Structures are given as C-alpha cells and as structure tokens.
Amino acid sequence: MIKKVGVVGAGTMGGGIAALVVSAGIPVVLLDIPGKEDRNELAKRGLERALKAKPAAFMDPDLARYVEIGNTEDHLEKLADCDWVVEAIIEKPEPKRALYERLEAILKPTAIISSNTSGIPMRVLLEGRSEAFRRRFLGTHFFNPPRYLHLLELIPTPETDPEVLREIRRFGERILGKGTVLAKDSPGFIANRLGVYGMVQAVRLMEKHGLSIDEVDALTGPLLGRPNSATFRTADLTGLDVLKLVTEELAQATGEDFALPDWVLRLVEEGRLGEKTGAGFYKRVNGEIYTLDYRTLDYAPRTTLDLPELKTLRDLPLAERLPKVVELPGKYGAFLRELFARTAHYALEKVSEIAYDLVSVDQALEWGFGWEEGPFKNMDALGHGRLEALFAEYGLPKPELLGKAQGAFYRNGTYLGFDGAYHPLPKREGVISLKALKSEGKTLLEGKEAALLDLGDGVALLEFRTKMNAIGEGVIRMLQKSLEYVEEKGYVGLVIGNEDPRAFSAGANLALILSLAQEGDWDELSLAVRQFQKASMSLRYSPFPVVVAPFGLTLGGGAEFTLHADAVQAHAELYMGLVEAGVGLLPAGGGTKEMLLRFTQELEPYEEADPFEAVKRAFNLIAMAKTSTSALEARKMGFLRDRDRISMNRDFLIADAKRRVLELAPDYRPPLPPRIRVLGSEALGNLRYAVWAFREAGEITDHDMRIGLEIAQVLTGGEGPAREVSEWDLLDLEREAFLKLLGTRKTQERIAYTLKTGKPLRN
Fold first, then answer.
1. Where are the transmembrane segments (predicted)?
2. pLDDT at 312 > cutoff 90
3. Shortest CA distance to 493 belongs to which of 552, 544, 433?
C-alpha cells in the first residue's frame, strides 16, 4: 500500500504531481537539484509555483504543509521510507539513469520507482539496473496539468512485476482519480504520439488549404468533438518550445516526419512561446485577443468564422455531426477531409505498435487531449465505407486493421482485437455506467427532464436531463414521483446524480422564473418556490436514505438539493455555491435556512461561543455568492460536512454513492425536525449596519445593499426578540424575500443579462 510518495524534480510537472498526490491525502517528499544560495531553492520555487498556479494545482492550498522539500545531494535519504518515487527530472536519459543508480542504493526493497518521461523508452532508462530494480520500475506519464487532465499512461516493461502494475493502477485510479491506460514502450506512448501527429498535420494542412489560425481553431475544436482550445490555443497553453522538443524527439525516435514549419521554429527562436511568454500563436493586446498571421508573423484582431452550416452542425450529436462535417463545402471541407483521413490512417497504422488494444487508444485521446470520442469511435461514426473512400482520395493504402473490421470497430458491447476477432469491452470494477443501464432497460420512470434508473441491489438513481441540468417543474415533478416510487416498490434508497461532463446542476431554471416575473404571475411563482422548498425538504425527511453525488458546477438549486441530502458523495472537482445573489436573488430552496442551521449547530457544543458568528458566516457565504474550487474547499466552507465523502475519480462516483446508500439503509430513520434559534432585532441591526457601511465605502451598489438586507432578514428571523423557530418559519421568510427581489427591475435586469451572457451584472 502506498502511504508516502517521493517526487524528484520540482518543475511544472513534478510540482503538479506533488500537489495532486498531497490533495489526495498522501504526504510527499519533493526534491530537486541544489540551488546556489539556498540549497533547497529549486524545490521551494517548485512548490511556490504550484501554489500560485492557475488553474490551482492544489485542491486545498493548506495541504502544501504536507509537502517536505529538499535537494538531491543533501536529502536523498528522505526518500528511504517512500512507497513510490516518481522521477520527473530533465528529459535526457543520462541524468535519469544516474539518479536511478543512487535511488537503488537507498530505497526500501518494496518501493516502486517510475518515470514521468513523456517519451523516452523504458528500456533505455533501465540500462545498468539490477533485476530487483527492474521488477519495481515502470513509466507513469501524467498529463499537464496533473490535477485536471484525467489520463495517466502506465508503461510497464516485460520485467515489471504484475503486482507493482496492479498497485500503481489501483492507486492511480482510486486515490489520484486518474483514468489509467496501459501503453506499449514505444516513442511518445499513445496520446502524444497520435495527438502531436494530428497537431503537426493541422499546421501543415492550414498552409496547404490557405486557412488562417483562427479558421483552423474554429474547425478543430468542439465541431470535431474536441476542446475549445482546439489546435493552436492548445499549443500556446502547452508551450511552443515544448511542442518543438516533442516533435524533434518523436522524429528522432521513430524516423517519421514530425517537422514543424520554419515560421513556427522562428517563433520559438524569438521567445514567442505561448501563454507563458504572453505571445505565441495568440497574443493579448489591451484585453483583446489578437491572432498571428503566419505569413508576416504580425498579430491582428481575432476573427470569427462565419459559416451558416456550422451553426446547424454544432447542435447535432457528434455521431451525426462528423459525417456532415467532412462534407462541408469549399476549403473548410477540403481541410477537414484531409485532416480526418491522415490522422485516422496514422492511428490505424500505429495502433498495434503503441497500444495493447484500440479501446486504450480511444481512452487516451479522450482523457489526455479532452476529445469527446476517441479516433476509432469517430471512424465508426463516419462509416467505414466513407473512410475507405477518403483514404483512396488521398492515396493512402487500406490499413490491415480496417480490412479485419466488419463495418465497425465497436459493436454490441464488443471491440475489434488485433487478431481480427471481437472481444467483450473490458469492465472496470467499481464503475457504474448510466448509459449502459439505459441500454439494458433499467429505466424505471422517464420524463422529458428527468428519469429514474435501477442501480441494482435495491438502489435507484434520479438523473436530471435538462440543459446544464437546470431544475424546473419537470425535474421537481419527477423527484416527487421517484420518492413515491422508491417507497412503494420497497427500494432501500435513492442516489441523485448524472454523467454530464460539466454540471451536476447549474441551479433553477432562470429563464422560466424571469418569464413568470415579467408576466406578473406572482401566485404561480410563489407556488413554484414553495414546491422547490418542499422538494428540498423531502430529500431530508424521506423514510429512506438519499445520497446526492455532485460534481463540477453545483450551483444555486443544485447546491440546495445537495445540502438537504442524508449524505453527499462528491467528486473532488466540485464547484459548489449558493450564487443567487449574483442574479439579484437569495437562496430560497432552503439554502439560506440550511447554512444558518448548520453553522448554528456547529457552535452548540461551545457555551461561550457567540451565536452571531454563525449568522455572520452564513451571511458572508450567501451575500458574496462564494463558490468552492474543490470538494476539499467545499468542506471548509461548510457546504460539505465531515461525514460527507469525496471520490477522487469521477468514474467511480455513482458506484461510491450507491455504496453509501447501502451503508445507511439498514435501520435507517429520518432525522427529527430541529428548532433553530434566531437572534432577531439586535442581530438584524448589526447586519444592517455592516451592509450600510459597505455601501458608504462604495464597495457595493444600492441593489447589492437591498439584496444584503433581505438575506439579513431571513438569517436573523426578522424583527423581534431572539427565539426558536421551525425550518418552515425560515423557509417562509426565504420565499417572501425571493419574491420581493424578483419583483424589482434591477434583479430582472441581472437575470436577463446572465441568461444572455453567462456573466453577472452589477447594476
């Protein structure tokens, strides 16, 4: 079992790996070569870089205290009690081999050693090492930034002990949250070999077909099911110097043509390396994005690709979109057809050299480069007949593997093996796929906006299906039906979760709320808010356990549902917040009440504690619309409790939530309704003064002040003496304040602006 990890090399990758490991609760030793004045200077600088990184490398910056720094000359013995040591030093074989020789002398016999090299073959690195060292060694290639990119390529050698591989795979998946893929010991492994090839082809074909950088990025991003950063923005983020180094190494190792055009090499010579130097393929000028003209190497304002066909295609599912994309007219279609043909052909030719199966290739590109679907799934979507026609059009011979395929690489839960036979798709232990459950007929109830699925073992799951999983009338109606169904049919409990890539729930349906307000339908709005409150409360008081599995964006109403669950099984990447103040409202689905209740209960064991501290804490959280940047931070902020759990790997989230239901189910009893002490007029006066002071200092607008005063009214119970109230007393105050604010012109302007732009308005 891995209880302590060493990282040698405190550069961008080493520091990022250390931050990820310690975020998972594992102490780390981080070493680098000695500095001149301060011997630990380079390791210290690497840790500081990780702390300042954007996006954040640490899930909780306070955990940096568990990273012990040192240098490789004075402190190598600090690695002696580490269970796993990751080498992430300069990308040259000689220094790596010299380090391994020193490590072999001090590490304990059971320690695992790995290299984070992005492409140097393991057999080269192992020259001169003993048999015992070789058994404990493998490649572990993280992708940058390690916290956010899901892929971890594992490169075992023929001598790697299978138990070592199993342990690293388990640790990588369950503890670090990675999607692990086994790669063969070939140059560039899987993702970089194919991804960099595709990037080089895009650059060359841009010139051939007379496109601009803006046009290529518009065509090679979400249109192809790839990230917004597309081709050139991705290169800027990675660094043009890194791109140059990787292409040169691949060319040398493979003998293939990975050469970049001269104008790209000139950018590197001039120090225009991308994001880290402020200019590369793109440059920010006075807050605007300018794009490089590769013919002149000057920058001009960014242009938008205006092609009517693209607007229609973007809303289609990827499988329907791709066949239409390659048929686009003119130079755009010509570029995309040739790019698809050449990259698909390369993947087919190299797959058996770089991977053990084509499933690994698809996973590597999906997890490492952010593709919606991997290359073989894309080829199936295009159709093998069209694929063969493309190859013929560009004079590319038909690959052997395509000849073995019977019209598809994937069919009926199987995939094509290199032997020409179809094999069952590998099942990952501990992973529940909702997509698979639906295909197996496990849907119990279904509506347009939500559905109830059978997870097995007496556990059901409620899945939202609206855009960004916004909560509206249809979701609330299905929630009530689901709760009734679970009770009537004798299910032991309910999970609320989904497989959306971005959002558990972005909150209530603001468009509907604004529409009703503008129509003046206040009775309908009051009823809708009360129904939302009843839905939240029903999660708390159902006669069986309800576990919510939030991840990604969990905002507003999505956060309120989460707060009212018996237990939460959160993904580590949780961006949770009660953000209603940003659109001129306050949480009225029980969120305001719940934060006051939680913070008040936390203080109850301490007789000397000032109860106003709970009110202040809730007020600051809600009025400032604070959002967590991780599940660890959500716990510190009070959105998660100590008993709530965190899954590092999103793939296991649903299964972990189901397991939590099964733990809670035996002899489950819903909680008794609490009485909540509110502080009344005195506390309300204090908050009013604080809000007024902020307005006088010019830190908030008049409307911000009004929102703050309504929040204060709810959190203190309004005018009157300190007293005990019920949850519904506070929910009534929430609803009243919500409707008051919604009736104002400025709040309606804020909502309309946010719906149009996705950004908050300060009016």
1. 7-30
2. no
3. 544
Distance CA 44, CA 48 (A): 6
Residue 73 and residue 227 in contact, taking contact as beta carbons nearer than 8 Å: no
DSSP alpha helix (H) spans, 126-230: 131-135, 162-170, 191-209, 213-219
User: Helix crossing, 375-382 with 358-369: angle to 10°?
Assistant: 110
| Nearest CA-CA partner of 16 in 52, 54, 58 | 58
Average pLDDT, stretch 487-496? Answer: 98
In this predicted structure, the answer to whether residue 553 has a pLDDT above a threshold of 80 is yes
Q: How far is CA 347 from the centre of its chain?
A: 27
Classify residue 407 as exposed, middle or buried by CB count within 10 Å of its CB (0-12, 13-18, 19+).
exposed
The Cα–Cα gap between 137 and 162 comes to: 11
Contacts of 56 (CB under 8 A, 6+ apart): 147, 629, 630
pLDDT at residue 451 greater than cutoff 90: yes
Q: Percentage of the chain surpassing pLDDT 90?
A: 94
Query: Does residue 568 come out as left (phi exceeding 0), alpha (psi in the -120 to 50 range) or beta?
Result: beta
Q: Are 530 and 494 in contact (CB under 8 A)?
A: no
Looking at residue 306, its pLDDT comes to 75
Q: Which amino acid is at 41?
A: E
Backbone angles phi, psi at 435, to 5 degrees: -60, -45
Q: Which helix (H) or strand (E) holds 188?
A: none
What's the pLDDT tens digit per position in 721-755?
999 999 999 999 999 999 999 999 999 999 999 99
Q: How far apart are CA 465 and CA 708, in angstroms?
A: 33
Mapping DSSP onto H, E and C, the string for 712-726 reads: HHHHHCCCCCCEEEC
Q: How far apart are CA 275 and CA 281, in angstroms?
A: 9
Q: For 252-296, what is each residue's pLDDT tens digit?
A: 999 999 999 999 999 999 999 998 899 999 998 888 899 999 999
Residue 106, judged by CB atoms within 10 A of its CB (0-12, 13-18, 19+), counts as middle
Q: What counts of helices (H) and strands (E) characterise the chain? A: 31, 26
Q: What is the mean pLDDT of residues 657-664?
A: 98
Run of H or E including 309: helix 308-314
Task: Pull the structure tokens for residue 377.
Answer: 């799934």
In angstroms, the CA 653 to CA 646 distance is 9
User: Is residue 533 within 8 Å of 588, Cβ to Cβ?
Assistant: yes
What are the angstrom distances between the C-alpha of 247 and each of 188, 194, 264, 350, 578? 10, 11, 12, 17, 46
Query: Quick one: tokens of 462?
Result: 């409620």
> pTM value?
0.94
2's tokens: 């891995």
Write out the two tokens for 172: 């990588």
One DSSP character per residue, 743-763 reads TSHHHHHHHHHHHHHSS----
The owner of tokens 């959500």 is 634
Which pLDDT band, with edges at 50, 70 and 90, does 586 fall under?
A: very high
Pair of tokens at residue 169: 């795979």
Give the span between the Cα atoms of 404 and 611, in whole angstroms.
72
Average pLDDT (106-130) is 95
pLDDT of residue 305: 81
- The amino acid that residue 590 corresponds to is G
CA–CA distance, 43 with 63 (Å, rounded to integer): 16
Summary mean pLDDT of the chain: 96
pLDDT of the residue at 353? 97
What average pLDDT does the segment 616-628 reach? 98
